[in-house]
Amino acid sequence: MWLILDEAHITNVAVHPEYRKNNIGRTLMLEMMRRAALMGAVRMTLEVRPSNAAARRLYASLGFEVKGIRRRYYTDTNEDAIIMWKEDLTGCENRA
Ligand SMILES: CC(C)(COP(=O)(O)OP(=O)(O)OC[C@H]1O[C@@H](n2cnc3c(N)ncnc32)[C@H](O)[C@@H]1OP(=O)(O)O)[C@@H](O)C(=O)NCCC(=O)NCCS
């Protein structure tokens, strides 16, 4: 995660294939949201492949919304990136 002024940008999140679907990805995201809020971020963004249904569903469940497209963002496949934002991290710093 990068923190740029009051914006947090998730650069990478991944769970080992053998450990997926155990709530680890959600826990990692909630912890990054908590740390970002504690460091003064008020919003958070990330890019995701349109084909990545698992990640898109995870982010949507955490309040991220589709806000734009970056054309041919992924150089390996030329796939576009969906830009998602969570506009308000208020309260995320209080997660137990
Ligand atoms: C995306 C990723 C990090 C999710 O990690 P995870 O630990 O498996 O996810 P969780 O168990 O915390 O699941 C949280 C939610 O994500 C969604 N989700 C996760 N895996 C899913 C799948 N295979 N299909 C559909 N939805 C899925 C669900 O909404 C799930 O909530 P639910 O269990 O209540 O339905 C993991 O699949 C991964 O590492 N993928 C490869 C790397 C990657 O794509 N990173 C993101 C790049 S933008």
List the helices and strands and how they pair.
Blueprint: E1 2-4, E2 7-9, H1 24-38, E3 43-48, H2 53-61, E4 65-74, E5 79-86
Description:
The chain has helices at 24-38, 53-61; strands spanning 2-4, 7-9, 43-48, 65-74, 79-86. The protein has a single domain (2-94), classed as Gcn5-related N-acetyltransferase (GNAT) (Aminopeptidase). The protein has 96 residues and is of the alpha+beta class. Helix content is 25%, strand content 31%. The model has no long low-confidence stretch (mean pLDDT 96). It is globular and about 40 Å long. It has a five-stranded mixed sheet with strand order 1-2-3-5-4, covered by helices on one side. Coenzyme A binds at residues 13-15, 20-26, 48, 52-55, 57-58, 61.
Descriptive labels:
five-stranded mixed β-sheet, 5 strands, Aminopeptidase, 96 residues, alpha+beta, binds coenzyme A
- Supply the CATH class: Alpha Beta
Low-pLDDT runs of 5+ residues are none
Shape: globular
Output the radius of gyration: 13 Å
- Main sheet: which strands, in order across? 1-2-3-5-4
Give the N-terminus to C-terminus distance in angstroms: 20 Å
The CATH homologous superfamily corresponds to: Gcn5-related N-acetyltransferase (GNAT)
Bound molecules: coenzyme A
Q: Tally the helices: what do you get?
A: 2
